[in-house]
Amino acid sequence: MSSVEYFDLPIVSLKSASQDPRAGGRDVVKALETVGFLGIVDIPEFDVKKLQQCCSWFFQQSWEVKKSVMKRNFNKDNTNIYRGYFPVLEDSFSRKEGFEIAADVPYDDPDVISGNFFYEHSTWPPEDGESFEFKKTMLEMYLRLHNIAMEILRLVSVGLGIRETSFEHFFNEKPCSTFRLIHYPPWKGPPPEGAKVEDGKVVTTPVHTDSGFLTLLATFHYHGLEVMTSEGKWLPVRPISDGLVLNVGDLFSKMVGGRFHATQHRVLDIGIDRYSVPFFLEPRFDANINVDMTIPFEDQRYERRVEKYGPWVLKRMAEKNFFEFKDLPNSSAEKY
């Protein structure tokens, strides 16, 4: 019986790396430069079981409850555009349903008043008040994942030899980060032709790179995530049941002059219900992303034009045709 060949995922203990930032920073930067993926373990004050509870609670809710928080593109009776629930679409190559939230900003914030849907308030399903505290746990885990991402960026900064807090101003105020629960049901019957790949495999999420800055992913004990190696070979990622998988997004690669790799990946149908929880770290909507963080500030080219994150990522999502963000208003980003 042949053994499975896994993708060689570098592993970093966040506890140890934080205690020795110089060595930890070198390890993180090396991983992001070479494979663009990183396994994170020994994460202080992180309980992956809470994420599992969130998935279990939400995805067992009735269709009526899910419809009540569904994005307007899938339920015209609702007003939420960017946050909320998206259903499985039987004719899509991506076979998944998901629920996503963000950090709310005050109602009197200019971006909320202007109707910028990146800052619409999260919508929540009703709770009975007696069982699992879904909203409270989701908000707690959003904050914990944000802080983990910030610690990783501090290590990256040390590893790059730049000021330790170099990245913080992009994310400390009004980040557009998305926290998502995902359920991948197995295909029932023949999948569409576009979902079939080599060797008889079938995808539930086709090959892609993430658009944003970086992703922290809880895989639990599930297999199915595959990564394209530098040799052009697809290999599975070994699940990290009590930690997180980090991968570089297109934006992170762009903002370090291509030094880090946004690696292609996909999700396979494993024949059973699969769950995962990604946290997509994203800067504030109007953050200028037309910078190279590896170049000292005083050496930056001042004639560079300002490029805002929001319009940039809207265009990116339209190009990649992610079904959960299909038909967003002002998808051309001309309004911004």
TrEMBL record:
What residues does the Fe2OG dioxygenase domain cover?
174-283
Pfam families per the UniProt record, alphabetical: 2OG-FeII_Oxy (PF03171), DIOX_N (PF14226)
Query: Mind telling me which InterPro entries this protein's record contains?
Result: DIOX_N (IPR026992), IPNS-like_FE2OG_OXY (IPR044861), IPNS-like_sf (IPR027443), Iron_ascorbate_oxido_reductase (IPR050231), Oxoglu/Fe-dep_dioxygenase_dom (IPR005123)
* The UniProt record lists the keyword Oxidoreductase: yes
- Origin superkingdom: Eukaryota
Q: Which UniProt keywords apply?
A: Iron, Metal-binding, Oxidoreductase
**What PROSITE patterns does this protein's entry cite?**
FE2OG_OXY (PS51471)
Q: Which GO molecular function, any one, fits this protein according to its record? A: metal ion binding
Q: Does the keyword Metal-binding apply?
A: yes
Which family does the record assign? Belongs to the iron/ascorbate-dependent oxidoreductase family.
Specify the protein name.
Fe2OG dioxygenase domain-containing protein
Question: What organism does this protein naturally occur in?
Answer: Pinctada imbricata
